[in-house]
Amino acid sequence: MTGLLDWLDDPRAGHGLRFADDDGGGWTKWEYPRLAALAGAAAEQIAELRHAPEGVVSIVTRSGPEFFAGFVGALAAGHTPSPLALPPFVRDRSQYVEHAAGILRAAEPVLVL
């Protein structure tokens, strides 16, 4: 049995994930070594910027490699990732700020990405 993050230590070249392009017209493949490097850099930044050694890291980014790196980086740094939907995915945009603030108050994150 392997752990969720074991692949970070030895990411397989030639394999990876595909992310939708910003224009929605296609997909871009990111191989695991590149994703592992991005997630490792995110974990280091999280460890430097956090205000507690463990806890929730709220992630407020678009989907894609940066979101993936923040999510996996939070896990690798010993935190619980907590994604927060961006305004385009919330039905009532006028209520987004209040909604997001309520989630952040409840989550009490040690860092917001």
Topology:
Elements: E1 16-20, E2 27-31, H1 32-49, E3 56-59, H2 65-76, E4 80-83, H3 96-107, E5 111-112
Parallel strand pairs: 3-4, 3-5
Antiparallel strand pairs: 1-2
Structure report:
- This protein has helices at 32-49, 65-76, 96-107, and strands spanning 16-20, 27-31, 56-59, 80-83, 111-112.
- With 113 residues, it is of the alpha/beta class.
- β3, α2 (65-76) and β4 (80-83) form a beta-alpha-beta unit.
- α1 (32-49) packs across α2.
- The mean pLDDT is 92.
Short structural summary:
This protein is of the alpha/beta class. The chain is 37% helix and 18% strand.
List keywords for this structure.
113 residues, alpha/beta, three-stranded parallel β-sheet, two-stranded antiparallel sheet, 5 strands
